[in-house]
C-alpha cells in the first residue's frame, strides 16, 4: 500500500460522510423542532404546492364557519323580532273579535278597542323600524326584493334573491298567449217552456254538485239565479250567465288549465250536449310569454322565471289583460259610400308575443358568504313588517288599503279589520317559516358540512406536511450515531500520516 502525506484520501472520505451525516442530523433537528417535514420548497416542491392550496382552503373554511355562525345569529335576531310582531297581531285579532260583538259594545268600549289597537300598530311599526343587527336594519324593508310595473293590467307578484336588479331600465314583458278560464256554452236557447217543464241543471266540481230543478213559477232569470245561489252555497267556483242570445254560459272563476268542472242539463244542448249526460268544460289556457327575452313558466295568469335564468330566476308577474289589450282595434276603412269609418280589426298575437309593459326590480336581498371559494354564497329576502306593508290590496267593504288603516269603531270596520289582521298573521307566519327554513336547511346544514370538510382538509394537509415524530426521532438517533461514528473515524484517518513520520525517523 502506498503511503502519501499530501492527500489523505481516507480522511477526505470520512470528512465527506461526516458532513453528510451532520446535514441529515440538522434536518432531523429542524423537523423535530418545527413539527413539519416540509419547511421549505426544496423539501418537496409538489407537496408544498398541494399543502399551500390546502392551507388556503382551510383558512377559507375557518372564515366560512365564522360567517355562517354570524349569519345564524342575524337570522335568529330577525326571527325573534318577527315573533313579537306575531304576538301583537294575535292580540289585535282578539280586539277585532271583541269589537265585532256589536250588540254588547257601546261607543266607549269601541273607542277603547280602537285606542288599544292603534297602540299595537304603533308597536309593530316601532319594532319594524328599530330591529337591528349591528347597524343593519332588519325589518324596515331594506333587506328584501321589491318590484313595480309599467303597463296596464301588469302586476308584480314576487321575486327571489336570485332575481337581478332592474330598477333603472326594467325587464320587458311580452305575452304570446293569454290565460283563459274553462267554460261551457250551451248550444240551445233556454226557453220558458223548458222552465215550466222542470228543467234540471247541475254543475259538478271536485266531487261537489250543485243542482236546481225549475218550477212553473220560475222565470228564466230566477232559474239562473237560483242555480247560481246553489253553486255558491256548495262552494263551487263557477259563474253562470245568460247571454243575450238566450244561451247559458258557465265559466270557472279561476284562470288556467288546472281548473275545470262538469255540467249537465235535462234538455240536450242547454248545458250538456246530450240530455242527462255530463259535459266536460273546455279546458282553460295558461298564459305564455317571456320576460327580458328569457323563457318563463306560465301558470294561470302568472309568468315565472325558470331556475337558472340569467336575470329573472324566481321573478313572478301577473298579466290580467284580455284579447282587446293585445290586438289593434283601430282600423279605418271605406264604406260603400266612400266615407271613412272605424271598424275593429282583430289581429293574431305575433309569435314572439306583444309587449305589455316592463317590470322594475329593486334587489336588496341579504347575501352571506358561506363557502371558502368565489360565488359560494346564499341569500335570503327579508320583507318589511311595517303596518303599511302588511295586508295590502285585500278586498274589503271599508276600503282599508293596508293594516295601518284598520278601524274597529263600526261593525263592518271590525269585520274587515279581522280579515286584514288574519292576512297579516298569515303573511308574518309565512315569512317566519321561510326564514326558519333558511336557517335550518341552509345555514345550519352548511355549518355541519363545513366542519366536516374542515376536519378532512386538516387531516389531508397534516398527512402531506406534518412530520411523524416517532419516525423522525428514530431517524435523528440514527443520524446522531452515524455522525459520532464519522467523527471518530475522521480522527483515526488523521492519524494515518503518522506512519510515514515513523519511516522518516
Secondary structure elements and their pairing?
Blueprint: H1 9-34, H2 45-100, H3 107-130, E1 132-133, E2 136-137, E3 145-150, E4 154-158, E5 171-177, E6 183-185, H4 192-196, E7 200-205, E8 208-213, H5 220-233, E9 238-242, E10 248-252, E11 262-265, E12 279-280, E13 288-291, E14 294-299, E15 302-305, E16 316-319, H6 323-326, E17 331-334, E18 340-343, E19 354-363, E20 366-369, E21 377-380, H7 411-465, H8 469-493, H9 498-504
Describe this structure in words.
- By secondary structure, the chain is α+β, with helices and mostly antiparallel strands.
- Among the domains are: 38-144 and 365-466, f41 fragment of flagellin, N-terminal domain (Up-down Bundle); 183-280, Immunoglobulin-like.
- The protein is 43% helix and 19% strand.
- It has helices at 9-34, 45-100, 107-130, 192-196, 220-233, 323-326, 411-465, 469-493, 498-504; strands at residues 132-133, 136-137, 145-150, 154-158, 171-177, 183-185, 200-205, 208-213, 238-242, 248-252, 262-265, 279-280, 288-291, 294-299, 302-305, 316-319, 331-334, 340-343, 354-363, 366-369, 377-380.
- Strands 3-19-5-13-14-15-16-4 form an eight-stranded antiparallel β-sheet, with no helix packed on it. A four-stranded antiparallel β-sheet has the order 8-7-11-12, with helices on one face. Strands 6-10-9 form a three-stranded antiparallel β-sheet.
Amino acid at each position: 500500500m502506498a503511503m502519501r502525506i499530501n492527500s489523505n484520501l481516507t480522511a477526505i472520505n470520512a470528512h465527506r460522510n461526516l458532513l453528510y451525516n451532520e446535514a441529515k442530523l440538522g434536518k432531523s433537528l429542524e423537523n423535530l423542532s418545527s413539527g413539519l417535514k416540509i419547511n421549505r420548497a426544496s423539501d418537496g416542491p409538489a407537496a408544498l404546492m398541494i399543502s399551500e392550496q390546502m392551507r388556503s382552503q382551510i383558512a377559507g373554511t375557518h372564515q366560512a364557519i365564522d360567517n355562517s355562525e354570524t349569519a345564524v345569529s342575524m337570522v335568529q335576531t330577525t326571527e325573534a323580532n318577527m315573533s313579537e310582531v306575531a304576538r301583537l297581531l294575535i292580540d289585535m285579532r282578539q280586539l277585532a273579535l271583541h269589537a265585532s260583538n256589536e250588540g254588547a259594545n257601546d261607543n266607549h268600549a269601541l273607542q277603547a278597542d280602537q285606542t288599544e289597537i292603534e297602540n299595537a300598530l304603533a308597536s309593530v311599526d316601532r319594532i319594524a323600524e328599530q330591529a337591528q343587527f349591528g347597524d343593519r336594519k332588519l325589518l324596515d324593508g331594506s333587506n328584501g326584493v321589491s318590484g313595480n310595473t309599467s303597463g296596464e293590467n301588469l302586476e308584480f307578484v314576487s321575486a327571489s334573491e336570485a332575481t337581478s336588479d332592474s330598477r333603472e331600465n326594467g325587464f320587458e314583458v311580452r305575452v304570446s298567449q293569454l290565460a283563459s278560464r274553462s267554460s261551457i256554452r250551451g248550444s240551445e236557447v233556454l226557453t220558458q217552456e223548458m222552465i215550466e217543464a222542470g228543467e234540471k241543471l247541475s254543475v259538478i266540481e271536485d266531487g261537489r254538485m250543485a243542482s236546481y230543478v225549475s218550477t212553473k213559477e220560475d222565470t228564466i232569470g230566477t232559474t239562473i239565479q237560483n242555480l247560481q245561489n246553489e253553486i255558491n252555497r256548495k262552494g263551487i267556483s263557477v259563474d253562470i250567465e245568460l247571454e243575450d242570445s238566450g244561451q247559458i254560459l258557465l265559466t270557472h272563476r279561476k284562470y288556467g288549465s288546472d281548473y275545470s268542472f262538469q255540467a249537465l242539463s235535462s234538455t240536450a244542448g242547454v248545458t250538456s250536449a246530450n240530455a242527462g249526460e255530463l259535459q266536460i268544460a273546455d279546458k282553460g289556457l295558461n298564459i305564455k310569454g317571456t320576460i327580458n327575452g328569457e323563457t318563463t313558466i306560465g301558470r294561470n295568469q302568472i309568468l315565472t322565471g325558470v331556475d337558472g335564468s340569467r336575470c329573472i330566476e324566481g321573478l313572478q308577474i301577473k298579466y290580467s289583460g284580455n284579447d282587446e289589450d293585445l290586438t289593434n282595434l283601430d282600423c279605418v276603412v271605406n264604406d260603400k259610400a266612400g266615407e271613412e269609418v272605424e271598424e275593429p280589426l282583430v289581429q293574431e298575437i305575433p309569435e314572439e308575443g306583444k309587449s305589455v309593459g316592463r317590470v322594475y326590480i329593486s334587489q336588496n336581498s341579504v347575501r352571506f358568504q358561506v363557502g371558502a371559494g368565489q360565488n359560494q354564497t346564499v341569500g335570503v329576502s327579508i320583507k318589511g313588517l311595517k303596518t303599511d306593508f302588511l295586508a295590502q290590496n285585500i278586498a274589503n267593504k271599508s276600503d282599508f288599503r293596508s293594516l295601518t288603516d284598520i278601524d274597529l269603531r263600526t261593525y263592518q270596520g271590525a269585520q274587515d279589520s279581522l280579515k286584514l289582521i288574519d292576512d297579516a298573521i298569515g303573511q308574518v307566519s309565512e315569512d317566519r317559516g321561510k326564514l326558519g327554513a333558511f336557517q335550518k336547511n341552509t345555514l345550519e346544514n352548511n355549518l355541519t358540512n363545513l366542519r366536516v370538510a374542515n376536519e378532512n382538509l386538516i387531516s389531508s394537509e397534516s398527512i402531506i406536511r406534518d412530520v411523524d415524530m416517532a419516525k423522525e426521532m428514530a431517524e435523528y438517533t440514527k443520524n446522531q450515531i452515524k455522525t459520532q461514528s464519522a467523527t471518530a473515524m475522521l480522527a483515526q484517518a488523521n492519524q494515518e500520516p503518522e506512519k510515514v513520520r515513523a519511516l522518516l525517523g
